[in-house]
Amino acid sequence: MAFHKKEEFSAKDQSLAAFAKAISHPARIAILTVLARKNECICGEIVEILPLAQSTVSQHLKELKNAGLINGTVDGPRSCYCINWKSFEKFNAEFGSLFTKLKEVNAKCC
Amino acid sequence: MAFHKKEEFSAKDQSLAAFAKAISHPARIAILTVLARKNECICGEIVEILPLAQSTVSQHLKELKNAGLINGTVDGPRSCYCINWKSFEKFNAEFGSLFTKLKEVNAKCC
DNA sequence: TTCTTTTATCGTATATTTGCGATATTAGAT
DNA sequence: ATCTAATATCGCAAATATACGATAAAAGAA
């Protein structure tokens, strides 16, 4: 069954995989780009830019937030999101070190 | 419906998302690590190391291959895999530039 | 209070992913 | 030709992801 096999892998691999999953949909990469580009932490503006329904965008935002890649604060009837640079940088380093590690341990093959 | 909305995003975002998806499962990260570490391009050895059935590992290998992250060559009754460093490096750069780009266009918020 | 705007959440449909066992398939060994 | 070992693929079940419309919630404006 499609059961929690994921948990049998190392915490590091799980963490990196979770981060990768967060950015494994073009809509979420587009959202991150919009968040970085706009001066303010938009919300409904994202809906206008993306070819997706409001509820769908809200769901993607939730996933990015759960992954820790963005922060969200409530401002009246609207929500203000922005990139969590700290954790984003952490994941960036984590990913970079995967590549570095792979290269280091490599010993030519095929 | 869960329809091809993905195709409405930029080619670059789609490409990066596809790469992220390829490494969005700890088993696949573990496979990449094994492939990099072992001197030879293992195959069934991976099955022994991972807590997964042979058919499942074979499927993960297929996905990594489809994503272009590994190469596979048939050697008698067995298959020999190794990391495709060229495309892996390409994706690494692509990912790094996402982070760089986000930082560049950013203009403080929240 | 009632209306409006903005966003989150619920319910639902469909698609994809994950995983396994069983069954091909391939090629060397007997 | 038959057996064996290593892999890939098929068929299936269960879980998760994607997407939408409808509805709830929150707070300012009328």
Summarize the structure.
Chain A has helices spanning 11-22, 26-37, 44-49, 54-66, 85-105; strands spanning 70-75, 78-83.
- Mean pLDDT of chain A equals 87
Helix content of chain A: 55-70%
- Between the first and last Cα atoms of chain A, what is the distance in angstroms? 34 Å
Tell me the radius of gyration of chain A. Answer: 17 Å
Main beta sheet of chain A, described? 2 strands, antiparallel
Which residue ranges of chain A are poorly predicted, with pLDDT under 50 across at least 5 consecutive positions?
none
Spell the H/E element sequence of chain A. HHHHEEH
Number of helices of chain A: 5
Please indicate the percent range of residues of chain A in DSSP E strands (runs of 2 or more). Answer: 5-15%
Annotated CATH topology of chain A: Arc Repressor Mutant, subunit A
In CATH, what is the homologous superfamily of chain A? Winged helix-like DNA-binding domain superfamily/Winged helix DNA-binding domain
* Count of individual domains of chain A: 1
Spatial shape of chain A: elongated
- The secondary-structure class of chain A comes to mainly alpha
Count interface residues per chain for the largest interface. A-B, 53 and 54 residues
The CATH architecture classification of chain A is: Orthogonal Bundle
**Physical arrangement of strands within the biggest beta sheet of chain A:** 1-2
Q: What is the CATH top level name of chain A?
A: Mainly Alpha
Describe the structure.
The structure is a homodimer of 110-residue chains. Chain A has a single domain, classed as Winged helix-like DNA-binding domain superfamily/Winged helix DNA-binding domain (Arc Repressor Mutant, subunit A), CATH 1.10.10.10. Chain A has 5 helices and 2 strands; from the N terminus they run ααααββα. Chain A has helices at 11-22, 26-37, 44-49, 54-66, 85-105; strands at residues 70-75, 78-83. A two-stranded antiparallel sheet of chain A has the order 1-2. The longest helix of chain A is centred in the last third of the chain and has 21 residues, at 85-105. Chain A is elongated, with a radius of gyration of 17 Å. In chain A, 31% of the residues are buried. At the A-B interface, helix 1, helix 2, strand 2 and helix 5 of A face helix 1, helix 2, strand 2 and helix 5 of B.
